[in-house]
UniProtKB/TrEMBL annotation:
This is ATP-binding cassette, subfamily B. InterPro entries: AAA+_ATPase, ABC1_TM_dom, ABC1_TM_sf, ABC_transporter-like_ATP-bd, ABC_transporter-like_CS, P-loop_NTPase, Type_1_exporter. Keywords: ATP-binding, Cell inner membrane, Cell membrane, Membrane, Nucleotide-binding, Transmembrane, Transmembrane helix, Transport. SMART domains: AAA (SM00382). Belongs to the ABC transporter superfamily. Siderophore-Fe(3+) uptake transporter (SIUT) (TC 3.A.1.21) family. It is a multi-pass membrane protein. It comes from Streptomyces indicus. The lineage of its organism: Bacteria, Bacillati, Actinomycetota, Actinomycetes, Kitasatosporales.
Amino acid sequence: MKPAHTDLESTWSAPPRDPEQPRELRRIARLFRPYRGRLAVVALLVAASSLVSVATPFLLKEILDTALPQGRTGLLSLLALGMIAAAVVGGVFGVLQTLISTTVGQRVMHDLRTAVYGRLQQMSLAFFTRTRTGEVQSRIANDIGGMQATVTSTATSLVQNFTGVVATVIAMLALDWRLTLVSLLLLPVFVLISRKVGNERKKITTKRQKQMAAMAATVTESLSVSGILLGRTMGRSDSLTRSFADESEKLIDLEVKASMAGRWRMSTIGIVMAALPALLYWAAGLAQGLGGPAVSLGTLVAFVTLQQGLFRPTVSLLSTGVQIQTSLALFQRIFEYLDLPVDIREPAEPVRLEKVRGEVRFENVEFRYDAESEPILDAIDVTVPAGASLAVVGPTGSGKSTLSSLVPRLYDVTGGRVTIDGVDVRDLAFDTLADTVGVVSQETYLFHASVADNLRFAKPDATDEELYEAARAAQIHEHIASLPDGYDTVVGERGHRFSGGEKQRLAIARTILRDPPVLILDEATSALDTRTEGAVQEAIDALSANRTTITIAHRLSTIRSADEIVVLDGGRVAERGTHAALLGQNGRYAALVRRDAETAPGNEPGDSGEPSQDGKRLAPVA
Protein backbone atom coordinates (compact mmCIF):
# COMPACT_ATOMS: atom_id res chain seq x y z
CA MET A 1 0.00 0.00 0.00
CA LYS A 2 1.30 3.42 -0.91
CA PRO A 3 1.81 5.96 1.83
CA ALA A 4 -0.96 8.46 2.33
CA HIS A 5 -0.24 12.06 1.38
CA THR A 6 -1.58 15.25 2.84
CA ASP A 7 -3.39 17.65 0.56
CA LEU A 8 -1.97 20.87 1.88
CA GLU A 9 1.64 21.76 2.45
CA SER A 10 2.15 22.95 5.99
CA THR A 11 3.86 26.26 6.63
CA TRP A 12 5.94 26.82 9.71
CA SER A 13 5.46 29.23 12.54
CA ALA A 14 6.98 29.01 16.00
CA PRO A 15 5.18 26.15 17.78
CA PRO A 16 2.83 27.21 20.57
CA ARG A 17 3.60 26.17 24.11
CA ASP A 18 2.15 22.72 24.74
CA PRO A 19 1.32 22.24 28.42
CA GLU A 20 1.70 18.49 27.96
CA GLN A 21 5.24 18.82 26.61
CA PRO A 22 8.01 17.76 28.99
CA ARG A 23 9.66 20.60 30.77
CA GLU A 24 12.79 22.02 29.18
CA LEU A 25 14.93 20.71 32.02
CA ARG A 26 13.75 17.15 31.44
CA ARG A 27 14.36 17.55 27.74
CA ILE A 28 17.85 18.90 28.38
CA ALA A 29 18.54 15.97 30.71
CA ARG A 30 17.61 13.58 27.90
CA LEU A 31 20.43 15.03 25.82
CA PHE A 32 22.89 13.53 28.30
CA ARG A 33 21.22 10.11 28.38
CA PRO A 34 23.54 8.47 25.80
CA TYR A 35 26.50 9.39 27.99
CA ARG A 36 25.15 8.26 31.36
CA GLY A 37 27.98 5.72 31.77
CA ARG A 38 30.64 8.42 31.57
CA LEU A 39 28.58 10.69 33.80
CA ALA A 40 28.38 7.90 36.40
CA VAL A 41 32.19 7.80 36.45
CA VAL A 42 32.23 11.57 36.88
CA ALA A 43 29.76 11.26 39.77
CA LEU A 44 32.00 8.71 41.50
CA LEU A 45 35.04 10.96 41.03
CA VAL A 46 33.08 13.93 42.38
CA ALA A 47 31.88 12.00 45.41
CA ALA A 48 35.40 10.77 46.15
CA SER A 49 36.79 14.29 45.72
CA SER A 50 34.17 15.72 48.10
CA LEU A 51 34.99 13.14 50.77
CA VAL A 52 38.71 13.88 50.44
CA SER A 53 38.13 17.64 50.74
CA VAL A 54 35.97 17.20 53.85
CA ALA A 55 38.67 15.11 55.51
CA THR A 56 41.14 18.02 55.55
CA PRO A 57 39.39 20.11 58.27
CA PHE A 58 39.22 17.03 60.56
CA LEU A 59 42.96 16.48 60.09
CA LEU A 60 43.46 20.16 60.93
CA LYS A 61 41.36 19.76 64.11
CA GLU A 62 43.53 16.89 65.29
CA ILE A 63 46.67 18.92 64.62
CA LEU A 64 45.40 21.87 66.70
CA ASP A 65 43.72 19.91 69.50
CA THR A 66 46.07 16.93 69.86
CA ALA A 67 49.34 16.85 67.92
CA LEU A 68 50.54 20.40 68.73
CA PRO A 69 49.42 20.69 72.41
CA GLN A 70 50.83 17.23 73.26
CA GLY A 71 54.01 17.65 71.20
CA ARG A 72 53.45 14.45 69.26
CA THR A 73 55.68 15.10 66.25
CA GLY A 74 55.05 11.67 64.70
CA LEU A 75 51.31 12.24 64.70
CA LEU A 76 51.87 15.79 63.46
CA SER A 77 53.93 14.52 60.52
CA LEU A 78 51.34 11.87 59.70
CA LEU A 79 48.46 14.40 59.79
CA ALA A 80 50.41 16.93 57.68
CA LEU A 81 51.20 14.24 55.10
CA GLY A 82 47.51 13.33 55.12
CA MET A 83 46.56 16.94 54.32
CA ILE A 84 49.09 17.01 51.43
CA ALA A 85 47.86 13.66 50.11
CA ALA A 86 44.25 14.89 50.24
CA ALA A 87 45.21 17.91 48.15
CA VAL A 88 47.05 15.75 45.57
CA VAL A 89 44.25 13.19 45.29
CA GLY A 90 41.63 15.95 45.05
CA GLY A 91 43.61 17.62 42.26
CA VAL A 92 43.95 14.38 40.26
CA PHE A 93 40.24 13.62 40.66
CA GLY A 94 39.43 17.17 39.56
CA VAL A 95 41.47 16.87 36.35
CA LEU A 96 39.90 13.51 35.47
CA GLN A 97 36.35 14.69 36.07
CA THR A 98 36.98 17.86 34.03
CA LEU A 99 38.32 15.80 31.13
CA ILE A 100 35.37 13.40 31.10
CA SER A 101 32.69 16.03 31.67
CA THR A 102 34.11 18.37 29.02
CA THR A 103 34.22 15.49 26.51
CA VAL A 104 30.60 14.62 27.29
CA GLY A 105 29.57 18.27 27.01
CA GLN A 106 31.25 18.67 23.64
CA ARG A 107 29.57 15.48 22.39
CA VAL A 108 26.20 16.90 23.45
CA MET A 109 27.01 20.17 21.63
CA HIS A 110 27.93 18.14 18.55
CA ASP A 111 24.66 16.21 18.80
CA LEU A 112 22.68 19.45 19.04
CA ARG A 113 24.45 21.10 16.10
CA THR A 114 24.04 17.99 13.97
CA ALA A 115 20.38 17.58 14.92
CA VAL A 116 19.55 21.20 14.04
CA TYR A 117 21.49 21.03 10.77
CA GLY A 118 19.87 17.73 9.88
CA ARG A 119 16.39 19.08 10.62
CA LEU A 120 17.02 22.13 8.44
CA GLN A 121 18.19 19.85 5.61
CA GLN A 122 14.74 18.23 5.76
CA MET A 123 12.82 21.49 5.42
CA SER A 124 11.12 22.43 2.18
CA LEU A 125 12.27 25.34 0.04
CA ALA A 126 9.35 27.38 1.42
CA PHE A 127 10.98 27.55 4.87
CA PHE A 128 14.17 29.08 3.50
CA THR A 129 12.29 31.62 1.38
CA ARG A 130 10.69 32.88 4.61
CA THR A 131 13.76 32.79 6.85
CA ARG A 132 16.84 35.01 6.70
CA THR A 133 20.08 33.09 6.24
CA GLY A 134 21.71 34.98 9.11
CA GLU A 135 18.92 33.88 11.45
CA VAL A 136 19.56 30.23 10.61
CA GLN A 137 23.31 30.66 11.06
CA SER A 138 22.82 32.43 14.38
CA ARG A 139 20.80 29.53 15.79
CA ILE A 140 23.56 27.07 14.96
CA ALA A 141 26.57 29.25 15.84
CA ASN A 142 25.54 31.81 18.47
CA ASP A 143 22.78 29.97 20.33
CA ILE A 144 24.47 26.58 20.54
CA GLY A 145 27.83 28.27 21.10
CA GLY A 146 26.30 30.30 23.94
CA MET A 147 25.29 27.09 25.70
CA GLN A 148 28.81 25.69 25.69
CA ALA A 149 29.70 26.56 29.28
CA THR A 150 26.39 25.22 30.56
CA VAL A 151 26.47 21.99 28.58
CA THR A 152 30.12 21.18 29.20
CA SER A 153 30.25 21.93 32.94
CA THR A 154 26.74 22.11 34.37
CA ALA A 155 26.15 18.39 34.98
CA THR A 156 29.51 18.01 36.72
CA SER A 157 29.06 21.25 38.60
CA LEU A 158 25.64 20.24 39.89
CA VAL A 159 26.85 16.83 41.12
CA GLN A 160 30.12 18.18 42.47
CA ASN A 161 28.64 21.12 44.33
CA PHE A 162 25.59 19.25 45.61
CA THR A 163 27.79 16.42 46.89
CA GLY A 164 30.17 18.95 48.37
CA VAL A 165 27.39 20.82 50.16
CA VAL A 166 25.85 17.64 51.59
CA ALA A 167 29.20 16.23 52.73
CA THR A 168 30.22 19.57 54.26
CA VAL A 169 26.92 20.02 56.13
CA ILE A 170 27.19 16.49 57.56
CA ALA A 171 30.76 17.20 58.68
CA MET A 172 29.69 20.52 60.24
CA LEU A 173 26.88 18.79 62.14
CA ALA A 174 29.38 16.24 63.40
CA LEU A 175 31.58 19.04 64.73
CA ASP A 176 28.90 21.33 66.28
CA TRP A 177 25.19 21.36 65.44
CA ARG A 178 24.63 24.81 66.98
CA LEU A 179 27.20 26.53 64.77
CA THR A 180 25.76 24.61 61.79
CA LEU A 181 22.31 26.13 62.37
CA VAL A 182 23.87 29.60 62.49
CA SER A 183 25.70 28.93 59.18
CA LEU A 184 22.59 27.69 57.37
CA LEU A 185 20.17 30.29 58.69
CA LEU A 186 20.33 32.53 55.60
CA LEU A 187 20.51 29.78 52.95
CA PRO A 188 16.76 29.90 51.98
CA VAL A 189 17.05 33.65 51.38
CA PHE A 190 20.02 33.07 49.09
CA VAL A 191 18.06 30.49 47.07
CA LEU A 192 15.16 32.91 46.54
CA ILE A 193 17.54 35.67 45.45
CA SER A 194 19.28 33.42 42.92
CA ARG A 195 15.94 32.30 41.42
CA LYS A 196 14.95 35.92 40.86
CA VAL A 197 18.29 36.67 39.26
CA GLY A 198 17.94 33.62 37.00
CA ASN A 199 14.49 34.65 35.74
CA GLU A 200 15.73 38.16 35.07
CA ARG A 201 18.75 36.96 33.09
CA LYS A 202 16.64 34.48 31.12
CA LYS A 203 14.42 37.30 29.79
CA ILE A 204 17.39 39.45 28.88
CA THR A 205 19.16 36.52 27.18
CA THR A 206 16.14 35.88 24.94
CA LYS A 207 16.24 39.50 23.75
CA ARG A 208 20.01 39.43 23.37
CA GLN A 209 20.00 36.29 21.17
CA LYS A 210 17.30 37.77 18.93
CA GLN A 211 19.39 40.89 18.53
CA MET A 212 22.50 38.81 17.77
CA ALA A 213 20.52 36.90 15.14
CA ALA A 214 19.39 40.17 13.56
CA MET A 215 22.96 41.45 13.49
CA ALA A 216 24.23 38.16 12.01
CA ALA A 217 21.59 38.40 9.28
CA THR A 218 22.69 41.96 8.48
CA VAL A 219 26.34 40.87 8.25
CA THR A 220 25.50 37.83 6.08
CA GLU A 221 23.46 39.89 3.63
CA SER A 222 25.55 43.05 3.42
CA LEU A 223 29.04 41.51 3.51
CA SER A 224 28.42 38.88 0.84
CA VAL A 225 29.91 39.55 -2.58
CA SER A 226 26.48 40.51 -3.91
CA GLY A 227 25.77 42.69 -0.88
CA ILE A 228 29.08 44.59 -1.21
CA LEU A 229 28.49 45.16 -4.92
CA LEU A 230 24.97 46.42 -4.33
CA GLY A 231 26.00 48.69 -1.46
CA ARG A 232 28.86 50.30 -3.36
CA THR A 233 27.09 50.70 -6.68
CA MET A 234 24.09 52.24 -4.92
CA GLY A 235 26.29 54.49 -2.76
CA ARG A 236 24.88 52.96 0.41
CA SER A 237 28.08 51.77 2.11
CA ASP A 238 27.94 54.53 4.74
CA SER A 239 24.24 53.90 5.29
CA LEU A 240 24.83 50.19 5.78
CA THR A 241 27.63 50.94 8.25
CA ARG A 242 25.33 53.24 10.23
CA SER A 243 22.61 50.60 10.18
CA PHE A 244 25.04 47.99 11.49
CA ALA A 245 26.25 50.43 14.16
CA ASP A 246 22.64 50.90 15.32
CA GLU A 247 22.18 47.13 15.59
CA SER A 248 25.47 46.84 17.49
CA GLU A 249 24.45 49.70 19.81
CA LYS A 250 21.31 47.79 20.80
CA LEU A 251 23.45 44.76 21.53
CA ILE A 252 25.73 46.81 23.84
CA ASP A 253 22.77 47.76 26.00
CA LEU A 254 21.53 44.16 26.21
CA GLU A 255 25.01 42.80 26.96
CA VAL A 256 25.46 45.29 29.82
CA LYS A 257 22.02 44.41 31.20
CA ALA A 258 22.80 40.70 30.94
CA SER A 259 26.09 41.17 32.74
CA MET A 260 24.65 43.37 35.50
CA ALA A 261 21.35 41.51 36.00
CA GLY A 262 21.23 40.59 39.69
CA ARG A 263 24.85 41.52 40.17
CA TRP A 264 24.11 43.51 43.36
CA ARG A 265 21.97 40.70 44.76
CA MET A 266 24.67 38.09 44.11
CA SER A 267 27.31 40.41 45.57
CA THR A 268 25.20 40.71 48.71
CA ILE A 269 25.22 36.93 49.02
CA GLY A 270 29.01 36.96 48.69
CA ILE A 271 29.42 39.65 51.33
CA VAL A 272 27.17 37.82 53.81
CA MET A 273 28.93 34.50 53.22
CA ALA A 274 32.32 36.15 53.68
CA ALA A 275 31.14 37.73 56.96
CA LEU A 276 29.87 34.44 58.39
CA PRO A 277 33.24 33.47 60.02
CA ALA A 278 33.03 36.57 62.19
CA LEU A 279 29.47 35.60 63.10
CA LEU A 280 30.64 32.09 64.01
CA TYR A 281 33.45 33.39 66.27
CA TRP A 282 30.95 35.70 67.94
CA ALA A 283 28.39 32.90 68.39
CA ALA A 284 31.02 30.52 69.87
CA GLY A 285 32.24 33.17 72.31
CA LEU A 286 28.67 34.17 73.24
CA ALA A 287 27.69 30.54 73.91
CA GLN A 288 30.69 30.04 76.17
CA GLY A 289 30.03 33.36 77.94
CA LEU A 290 26.46 32.30 78.68
CA GLY A 291 27.68 29.12 80.34
CA GLY A 292 27.27 26.76 77.42
CA PRO A 293 29.74 24.04 76.42
CA ALA A 294 33.07 25.43 75.33
CA VAL A 295 34.13 25.01 71.74
CA SER A 296 37.75 23.89 71.36
CA LEU A 297 40.11 25.95 69.24
CA GLY A 298 40.63 23.05 66.84
CA THR A 299 36.86 22.53 66.47
CA LEU A 300 36.28 26.22 65.83
CA VAL A 301 39.06 26.50 63.21
CA ALA A 302 37.97 23.26 61.54
CA PHE A 303 34.36 24.45 61.52
CA VAL A 304 35.25 27.83 59.98
CA THR A 305 37.34 26.00 57.38
CA LEU A 306 34.34 23.80 56.54
CA GLN A 307 32.06 26.82 56.48
CA GLN A 308 34.39 28.57 54.04
CA GLY A 309 34.46 25.36 52.03
CA LEU A 310 30.67 25.41 52.08
CA PHE A 311 30.69 28.93 50.65
CA ARG A 312 32.24 27.96 47.31
CA PRO A 313 29.92 25.06 46.37
CA THR A 314 26.86 26.90 47.70
CA VAL A 315 27.53 30.02 45.65
CA SER A 316 28.47 27.79 42.70
CA LEU A 317 25.17 25.90 43.04
CA LEU A 318 23.27 29.18 43.10
CA SER A 319 25.27 30.46 40.10
CA THR A 320 24.64 27.20 38.24
CA GLY A 321 20.93 27.67 38.85
CA VAL A 322 21.18 31.17 37.42
CA GLN A 323 23.20 29.85 34.47
CA ILE A 324 20.62 27.15 33.78
CA GLN A 325 17.83 29.72 33.83
CA THR A 326 19.81 31.85 31.38
CA SER A 327 20.57 28.90 29.12
CA LEU A 328 16.91 27.87 29.01
CA ALA A 329 16.34 30.82 26.69
CA LEU A 330 18.99 29.43 24.33
CA PHE A 331 17.65 25.89 24.58
CA GLN A 332 14.15 27.12 23.78
CA ARG A 333 15.43 28.75 20.58
CA ILE A 334 17.23 25.53 19.59
CA PHE A 335 14.21 23.38 20.45
CA GLU A 336 12.08 25.63 18.22
CA TYR A 337 14.16 24.49 15.26
CA LEU A 338 14.25 20.87 16.40
CA ASP A 339 10.44 20.98 16.62
CA LEU A 340 9.97 22.34 13.12
CA PRO A 341 7.42 20.21 11.30
CA VAL A 342 9.05 18.39 8.40
CA ASP A 343 6.63 18.80 5.52
CA ILE A 344 8.64 16.79 2.99
CA ARG A 345 9.37 13.34 4.40
CA GLU A 346 10.73 10.16 2.92
CA PRO A 347 8.04 7.45 3.05
CA ALA A 348 8.41 4.63 5.57
CA GLU A 349 8.87 2.12 2.73
CA PRO A 350 10.41 4.15 -0.10
CA VAL A 351 10.41 2.95 -3.69
CA ARG A 352 13.75 2.63 -5.49
CA LEU A 353 13.70 2.64 -9.27
CA GLU A 354 16.12 0.09 -10.68
CA LYS A 355 16.05 1.22 -14.31
CA VAL A 356 14.68 4.69 -14.96
CA ARG A 357 13.05 5.38 -18.31
CA GLY A 358 12.26 8.99 -17.43
CA GLU A 359 8.57 9.45 -18.18
CA VAL A 360 7.21 12.40 -16.16
CA ARG A 361 3.49 12.99 -15.60
CA PHE A 362 1.66 15.87 -13.95
CA GLU A 363 -1.75 14.42 -13.06
CA ASN A 364 -4.36 17.06 -12.15
CA VAL A 365 -1.67 18.89 -10.16
CA GLU A 366 -2.62 21.66 -7.75
CA PHE A 367 -0.25 23.68 -5.60
CA ARG A 368 -0.83 26.44 -3.07
CA TYR A 369 1.39 27.71 -0.29
CA ASP A 370 -1.26 27.35 2.40
CA ALA A 371 -4.91 26.48 2.76
CA GLU A 372 -6.07 30.10 2.61
CA SER A 373 -4.07 31.21 -0.41
CA GLU A 374 -5.09 31.07 -4.05
CA PRO A 375 -3.64 28.13 -6.01
CA ILE A 376 -0.37 28.85 -7.80
CA LEU A 377 -1.04 25.86 -10.07
CA ASP A 378 -4.41 24.34 -10.81
CA ALA A 379 -5.56 21.30 -12.80
CA ILE A 380 -2.22 20.72 -14.58
CA ASP A 381 -2.34 17.57 -16.73
CA VAL A 382 0.84 17.12 -18.75
CA THR A 383 2.81 14.05 -19.81
CA VAL A 384 6.46 14.11 -20.87
CA PRO A 385 7.36 10.79 -22.53
CA ALA A 386 10.72 9.23 -21.70
CA GLY A 387 13.49 10.98 -23.65
CA ALA A 388 11.15 13.75 -24.85
CA SER A 389 11.44 17.49 -24.23
CA LEU A 390 8.80 19.77 -22.74
CA ALA A 391 9.07 23.57 -22.69
CA VAL A 392 7.00 25.61 -20.23
CA VAL A 393 6.45 29.28 -21.03
CA GLY A 394 4.24 32.04 -19.74
CA PRO A 395 4.26 35.49 -18.17
CA THR A 396 5.97 36.22 -14.85
CA GLY A 397 4.04 34.70 -11.96
CA SER A 398 2.26 32.10 -14.07
CA GLY A 399 3.74 29.22 -12.02
CA LYS A 400 6.48 27.99 -14.38
CA SER A 401 9.28 27.62 -11.81
CA THR A 402 6.89 26.22 -9.21
CA LEU A 403 5.86 23.51 -11.66
CA SER A 404 9.48 22.50 -12.23
CA SER A 405 10.14 22.46 -8.47
CA LEU A 406 7.52 19.76 -7.93
CA VAL A 407 9.48 17.10 -9.84
CA PRO A 408 12.55 17.03 -7.50
CA ARG A 409 10.22 17.62 -4.50
CA LEU A 410 11.50 21.05 -3.57
CA TYR A 411 7.79 21.48 -2.86
CA ASP A 412 5.06 18.87 -2.60
CA VAL A 413 1.83 19.10 -4.55
CA THR A 414 -1.28 20.01 -2.56
CA GLY A 415 -3.51 18.16 -5.00
CA GLY A 416 -3.05 15.52 -7.68
CA ARG A 417 0.36 13.95 -8.12
CA VAL A 418 3.64 14.04 -10.05
CA THR A 419 5.00 10.69 -11.22
CA ILE A 420 8.21 9.35 -12.73
CA ASP A 421 7.71 6.11 -14.61
CA GLY A 422 4.29 5.82 -12.98
CA VAL A 423 5.58 6.16 -9.40
CA ASP A 424 4.50 9.15 -7.31
CA VAL A 425 7.63 11.18 -6.51
CA ARG A 426 6.44 11.30 -2.89
CA ASP A 427 6.84 7.52 -2.75
CA LEU A 428 10.42 7.54 -4.05
CA ALA A 429 13.47 7.26 -1.82
CA PHE A 430 15.31 10.56 -1.55
CA ASP A 431 18.51 9.14 -3.01
CA THR A 432 16.62 7.64 -5.96
CA LEU A 433 14.90 10.97 -6.64
CA ALA A 434 18.20 12.85 -6.44
CA ASP A 435 19.85 10.38 -8.82
CA THR A 436 16.89 10.60 -11.23
CA VAL A 437 16.28 14.36 -11.46
CA GLY A 438 18.95 16.96 -12.21
CA VAL A 439 18.31 20.70 -12.01
CA VAL A 440 20.14 23.57 -13.70
CA SER A 441 18.67 26.88 -12.59
CA GLN A 442 19.14 30.50 -13.54
CA GLU A 443 20.96 31.23 -10.27
CA THR A 444 24.04 29.01 -10.25
CA TYR A 445 25.48 28.25 -6.83
CA LEU A 446 29.16 27.41 -6.51
CA PHE A 447 31.00 26.76 -3.26
CA HIS A 448 34.06 28.73 -2.22
CA ALA A 449 36.30 25.84 -3.28
CA SER A 450 38.24 24.63 -6.29
CA VAL A 451 36.65 23.91 -9.66
CA ALA A 452 37.33 20.20 -9.13
CA ASP A 453 35.69 20.22 -5.69
CA ASN A 454 32.62 21.98 -7.09
CA LEU A 455 32.30 19.40 -9.85
CA ARG A 456 32.85 16.47 -7.51
CA PHE A 457 30.00 17.69 -5.33
CA ALA A 458 27.81 15.85 -7.85
CA LYS A 459 29.97 12.71 -7.81
CA PRO A 460 32.55 12.56 -5.00
CA ASP A 461 34.36 9.55 -6.47
CA ALA A 462 34.68 10.99 -9.99
CA THR A 463 38.08 10.54 -11.61
CA ASP A 464 40.00 13.42 -13.17
CA GLU A 465 39.20 12.07 -16.62
CA GLU A 466 35.48 12.07 -15.81
CA LEU A 467 35.78 15.73 -14.75
CA TYR A 468 37.50 16.59 -18.03
CA GLU A 469 34.87 14.76 -20.11
CA ALA A 470 32.01 16.52 -18.30
CA ALA A 471 33.73 19.90 -18.73
CA ARG A 472 34.32 19.24 -22.43
CA ALA A 473 30.65 18.41 -22.93
CA ALA A 474 29.77 21.67 -21.14
CA GLN A 475 32.14 23.71 -23.38
CA ILE A 476 34.24 24.83 -20.41
CA HIS A 477 37.26 22.46 -20.28
CA GLU A 478 39.60 24.56 -22.41
CA HIS A 479 38.96 27.65 -20.35
CA ILE A 480 39.57 25.83 -17.05
CA ALA A 481 42.75 24.27 -18.43
CA SER A 482 44.01 27.73 -19.47
CA LEU A 483 43.87 29.07 -15.89
CA PRO A 484 47.15 29.07 -13.91
CA ASP A 485 45.83 26.54 -11.39
CA GLY A 486 43.59 24.66 -13.81
CA TYR A 487 40.99 22.55 -12.02
CA ASP A 488 42.51 23.59 -8.68
CA THR A 489 41.42 27.20 -9.28
CA VAL A 490 39.32 28.48 -6.38
CA VAL A 491 36.08 29.86 -7.81
CA GLY A 492 35.57 32.48 -5.06
CA GLU A 493 32.50 33.28 -3.00
CA ARG A 494 29.46 32.03 -4.93
CA GLY A 495 31.76 31.57 -7.95
CA HIS A 496 32.30 35.30 -8.32
CA ARG A 497 35.68 34.91 -10.04
CA PHE A 498 33.86 33.48 -13.04
CA SER A 499 31.42 35.16 -15.39
CA GLY A 500 27.75 34.24 -15.58
CA GLY A 501 28.21 32.10 -18.67
CA GLU A 502 31.16 30.26 -17.15
CA LYS A 503 29.27 29.57 -13.95
CA GLN A 504 26.35 28.19 -15.94
CA ARG A 505 28.66 25.91 -17.89
CA LEU A 506 30.28 24.72 -14.66
CA ALA A 507 26.81 23.96 -13.29
CA ILE A 508 26.00 22.06 -16.50
CA ALA A 509 29.26 20.09 -16.24
CA ARG A 510 28.36 19.24 -12.65
CA THR A 511 24.97 17.93 -13.77
CA ILE A 512 26.51 15.98 -16.68
CA LEU A 513 28.79 14.31 -14.14
CA ARG A 514 25.74 13.21 -12.15
CA ASP A 515 24.09 11.89 -15.35
CA PRO A 516 20.40 12.15 -14.36
CA PRO A 517 17.73 10.59 -16.64
CA VAL A 518 15.38 13.57 -16.05
CA LEU A 519 16.62 17.13 -16.48
CA ILE A 520 15.02 20.38 -15.29
CA LEU A 521 16.32 23.57 -16.93
CA ASP A 522 14.87 26.53 -15.04
CA GLU A 523 15.58 29.60 -17.22
CA ALA A 524 19.20 28.52 -17.37
CA THR A 525 20.20 31.09 -20.04
CA SER A 526 17.92 34.02 -19.22
CA ALA A 527 20.68 36.17 -17.66
CA LEU A 528 23.16 35.75 -20.53
CA ASP A 529 23.82 37.77 -23.64
CA THR A 530 23.17 36.16 -27.00
CA ARG A 531 26.81 35.25 -27.76
CA THR A 532 27.42 33.65 -24.36
CA GLU A 533 24.01 32.03 -24.58
CA GLY A 534 25.13 30.27 -27.74
CA ALA A 535 28.00 28.48 -25.94
CA VAL A 536 25.81 27.64 -22.96
CA GLN A 537 23.07 26.38 -25.25
CA GLU A 538 25.53 24.01 -26.91
CA ALA A 539 26.38 22.66 -23.46
CA ILE A 540 22.68 22.34 -22.64
CA ASP A 541 22.06 20.47 -25.91
CA ALA A 542 24.81 18.01 -24.98
CA LEU A 543 23.34 17.64 -21.52
CA SER A 544 19.77 17.16 -22.80
CA ALA A 545 20.63 14.43 -25.32
CA ASN A 546 18.70 11.21 -24.64
CA ARG A 547 17.17 12.64 -21.45
CA THR A 548 13.67 13.66 -20.47
CA THR A 549 13.97 17.44 -20.39
CA ILE A 550 11.65 20.04 -18.90
CA THR A 551 12.73 23.57 -19.83
CA ILE A 552 11.38 26.68 -18.15
CA ALA A 553 11.94 29.18 -20.94
CA HIS A 554 12.53 32.92 -20.76
CA ARG A 555 13.89 33.24 -24.29
CA LEU A 556 11.59 31.45 -26.66
CA SER A 557 14.28 31.05 -29.32
CA THR A 558 15.82 28.28 -27.21
CA ILE A 559 12.76 26.01 -27.15
CA ARG A 560 11.50 25.94 -30.73
CA SER A 561 12.58 22.34 -31.20
CA ALA A 562 10.82 21.10 -28.04
CA ASP A 563 8.53 18.11 -28.57
CA GLU A 564 5.76 19.99 -26.77
CA ILE A 565 5.34 23.53 -25.49
CA VAL A 566 2.94 24.33 -22.67
CA VAL A 567 1.80 27.90 -22.09
CA LEU A 568 0.82 28.67 -18.48
CA ASP A 569 -1.36 31.61 -17.53
CA GLY A 570 -2.64 32.16 -14.01
CA GLY A 571 -1.45 28.72 -12.96
CA ARG A 572 -3.44 26.89 -15.66
CA VAL A 573 -2.55 25.44 -19.04
CA ALA A 574 -3.70 28.02 -21.57
CA GLU A 575 -2.19 26.47 -24.71
CA ARG A 576 -0.15 23.43 -25.68
CA GLY A 577 1.42 22.07 -28.83
CA THR A 578 4.54 22.33 -31.00
CA HIS A 579 6.15 25.64 -31.88
CA ALA A 580 4.64 25.64 -35.37
CA ALA A 581 1.18 24.60 -34.20
CA LEU A 582 1.07 27.27 -31.50
CA LEU A 583 2.19 29.97 -33.93
CA GLY A 584 -0.62 28.88 -36.22
CA GLN A 585 -3.15 29.41 -33.42
CA ASN A 586 -2.01 33.04 -33.13
CA GLY A 587 -2.81 33.05 -29.42
CA ARG A 588 -0.83 33.64 -26.24
CA TYR A 589 2.29 31.80 -27.43
CA ALA A 590 2.39 33.76 -30.69
CA ALA A 591 2.11 36.99 -28.72
CA LEU A 592 4.99 35.91 -26.46
CA VAL A 593 7.12 35.09 -29.53
CA ARG A 594 6.46 38.52 -31.05
CA ARG A 595 7.35 40.26 -27.81
CA ASP A 596 10.50 38.14 -27.47
CA ALA A 597 11.56 39.09 -30.99
CA GLU A 598 11.06 42.80 -30.24
CA THR A 599 13.31 42.72 -27.16
CA ALA A 600 15.92 40.28 -28.48
CA PRO A 601 18.55 42.34 -30.35
CA GLY A 602 21.33 43.56 -28.05
CA ASN A 603 19.19 44.36 -25.00
CA GLU A 604 20.37 41.61 -22.73
CA PRO A 605 23.00 42.08 -20.03
CA GLY A 606 26.58 41.60 -21.23
CA ASP A 607 28.54 38.51 -20.40
CA SER A 608 31.07 38.06 -23.16
CA GLY A 609 34.24 37.71 -21.19
CA GLU A 610 34.21 40.55 -18.69
CA PRO A 611 37.29 40.86 -16.46
CA SER A 612 37.34 39.11 -13.13
CA GLN A 613 37.99 40.82 -9.78
CA ASP A 614 41.73 40.49 -10.09
CA GLY A 615 41.76 42.00 -13.59
CA LYS A 616 42.42 38.73 -15.42
CA ARG A 617 39.99 37.99 -18.20
CA LEU A 618 38.46 34.72 -17.11
CA ALA A 619 35.81 34.27 -19.79
CA PRO A 620 36.71 33.91 -23.44
CA VAL A 621 34.30 35.21 -26.01
CA ALA A 622 31.95 32.32 -26.69
